[in-house]
Specification:
Blueprint: E1 3-7, E2 10-11, E3 25-26, H1 41-50, E4 55-56, H2 69-80, H3 100-109, H4 128-138, H5 158-169, H6 189-199, E5 202-204, E6 208-211, E7 215-219, E8 223-225, E9 230-237, E10 241-243, E11 252-265, E12 273-276, E13 279-285, E14 291-295, E15 299-305, E16 310-314, E17 319-325, E18 333-338, E19 340-345, E20 349-364, E21 370-386, E22 391-394, E23 397-403, E24 409-410, E25 416-419, E26 424-427, E27 430-433, E28 452-453, E29 456-460, E30 468-474, E31 480-487, E32 496-498, E33 506-508, E34 518-524, E35 528-529, E36 531-533, E37 563-565, E38 573-575
Parallel strand pairs: 1-7, 2-5, 5-8, 6-9, 7-9, 8-10, 9-11, 10-11, 11-12, 11-13, 12-14, 13-15, 14-16, 15-17, 16-18, 17-19, 18-20, 19-20, 20-21, 21-22, 21-23, 22-24, 23-25, 24-26, 28-35
Antiparallel strand pairs: 3-4, 26-27, 29-30, 30-33, 31-32, 31-34, 34-36, 37-38
Length: 576
């Protein structure tokens, strides 16, 4: 029986650690003087164990000290693996500053910006409302017009109000015991670590294989992989799994992993992010040039492709149920290979190449007007639905194409083409237009005939046992139901009853009919109406007995020969 290991944290110590403070960092054992009994003690210990934060050289951690904007950016970059360096032009950030690269990464990731005067203010302490906005951006929390019951809520400016509500509802940041949020107050080191502890339950920062095939490891919360060449085996992650930008071109393999939330791919290269025997609800591909391989036993409910990348499905079974290409591809292309149940194209422009495999249905949605879909020679598509004037090319086969947008182009000839009302399209080089259907009945229409009454019924035949009686109806072509009847006695006017099974046009008289009267009742069917009864025939007589075999004797007086006659004896006699 397999065991399950419930893990609140996976602590993999970083080789390169993040400093929170101006002085040299020291080991955890030397940095516990001022955290014992502190309300954030457990979270601080976890994050120091991870190597993400450190204390000062005097042996303190400084949990109630404030954190600067540059330090805050560096910490978040290290935690979430942000690696893209954006071009920045802040007058207070120089290329030689230790924090220059981290500021550029924070701006590139979009979670921090400068002020209206063009400065970044790296040495200013970050305020609580600024931190709320950063965390809301990182986790893409929803903007709503909701309020929250902080006593100082009305003092929040418009730019931070939604973020404060979002992080409070998400349980990331809370207010003080007196009910205030203190938006302009500075964020403390302990508060920063506590928010990160709520955001991240596990982090893998070094290459290697983690987990056991025989023992499931459960991580209750969100997990981040910040290093390449990492393999996770037999994990259950109840939150989201982020493959961070810092993975670079490295590989990440998920083997027998279940992700209850989102799997967000922001790192990896052409050597692949591999999913084997893995279950994912939502897969988001957000790393340009990455190759994602879906192997046998993997199930993905929805996969969203946001950047030029490749998805290769080599799985028997469900694999990706629905793949959606969304956002802007630009000059790049999305490459698909393998069998897919459903592919939806929402991106406004770009190229989607299907190299091989079978797709049950491809839908080019109404937003995809400038998309080019290319089907390779080994591609077959069961149903193609075009709701935008996009272009479909290549040499792959299409069974049914439904075109609902004028201007659509399909270079190959589908087996069947269905055009929407008033739609004109180019199919296999020819312009085709919608033609309204013509209502042609399957069979010619004949007005119904007037019903005709059965006018007469008679019986023909000899009233003897063994003889056949035949009913003769007028009109002769009338369709009727027959019921032959027999009298109860020799009296012609006695009661008549139906003869069991006698419902045909003819009736053969039997011994039961001897010395009885017979008649037939007919009822019109179909276009014939009325019921009539024939005159009775009879009395029914017994069948005539067959005569004995006749023996004819002829004279032989004038003949010179003998006749031998068989009299039924053992010997014959000669007559001279």
């Amino acid at each position: 029986m397999k065991k399950k290991r419930n893990v609140r944290l996976i602590a993999i110590v970083l080789a390169l650690c993040m400093f929170l403070g101006s002085g040299p960092a020291v080991l955890l054992a030397q940095a516990t003087e001022d955290i014992e009994g502190h309300w954030a003690e457990e979270a601080i210990i976890r994050w120091v164990d991870r190597g993400i934060v450190k204390g000062y050289e005097d042996g303190t951690f400084g949990p109630d000290r404030f954190i600067k904007r540059a330090e805050f950016a560096a910490l978040l970059n290290r935690t979430f693996g942000y690696a893209t360096v954006s071009s920045i032009e802040f007058p207070d950030v120089s290329n030689g500053d230790w924090f220059a690269a981290d500021v550029a990464k924070a701006v590139g990731a979009g979670y921090m910006k400068g002020y209206d005067d063009g400065t970044f203010r790296p040495d200013d302490f970050i305020t609580r409302q600024e931190a709320a906005l950063v965390f809301a951006r990182i986790y893409e929390l929803e903007q709503t017009g909701d309020t929250y019951d902080f006593t100082d809520f009305d003092s929040l400016p418009d730019w931070s109000r939604w973020a404060v509500v979002a992080v409070a509802k998400a349980g990331l940041m809370t207010g003080y015991p007196d009910g205030r949020f203190a938006p302009t107050g500075n964020l403390k080191r302990a508060e920063t670590v506590t928010v990160l502890d709520r955001l991240v339950a596990g982090i893998f920062t070094e290459e290697g294989t983690y987990g056991s095939p025989d023992e499931e490891t459960v991580i209750d919360g969100n997990v981040i992989v910040t290093a390449g060449d990492v393999t996770l085996v037999n994990f259950r992650i109840t939150g989201n799994l982020l493959i961070a930008e810092s993975v670079g071109e490295g590989t990440v393999t998920l083997a027998k992993v279940t992700v209850d939330g989102e799997l967000l791919i922001r790192g990896g290269g052409s050597d692949s992010i591999v999913l084997a025997n893995t279950t994912v609800v939502t897969l988001i591909i957000d790393k340009e040039g990455v190759r994602v391989v879906i192997l046998e036993g993997t199930q993905v409910t929805e996969a969203y492709v946001r950047v030029p990348s490749m998805v290769e499905q080599d799985a028997e079974g469900e694999g990706i149920k629905a793949l959606i290409v969304e956002e802007i591809l630009g000059d790049g292309e999305v490459v698909l290979s393998g069998d897919f149940a459903s592919v939806s194209i929402r991106v406004e422009s770009g190229k989607i190449v299907v190299e091989g495999g079978h797709i049950d249905e491809i839908t080019v949605e109404s937003t995809a007007a400038d998309v080019v879909l290319e089907l390779g020679s080994d591609v077959s598509v069961a149903n193609l639905v075009m709701d935008a004037p996009a272009t479909v090319g290549g040499t792959g086969t299409i069974e049914t194409a439904t075109v609902n947008a004028s201007g659509a182009v399909i270079e190959q000839q589908p087996e069947e083409v269905v055009l929407g009302e008033d739609v004109t399209a180019i199919i296999a080089g020819e312009e085709v237009a919608y033609a309204p259907p013509v209502d042609i009945p399957d069979k010619p229409y004949f007005p119904p005939e007037e019903p005709e009454a059965v006018s007469a019924i008679s019986v023909e035949g000899v009233a003897k046992v063994g003889e056949t009686l035949t009913a003769k109806v007028t009109p002769s072509g009338a369709t009727v139901n027959y019921k032959w009847q027999r009298s109860a006695s020799e009296d012609k006017i006695s009661e008549f009853s139906d003869i069991p099974g006698a419902t045909a046009k003819t009736y053969v008289l039997t011994e039961d009919d001897l010395d009885r009267w017979i008649k037939v009742e007919v009822t019109g069917t179909g276009n014939y109406t009325g019921t009539m009864t024939s005159n009775a025939v009879g009395l029914v007589e017994a069948a005539e007995e067959e005569p004995d075999e006749l023996i004819e004797y002829a004279s032989t007086a004038d003949a010179d020969f003998d006749i031998t006659v068989d009299f039924g004896t053992e010997e014959s006699a000669a007559i001279a």
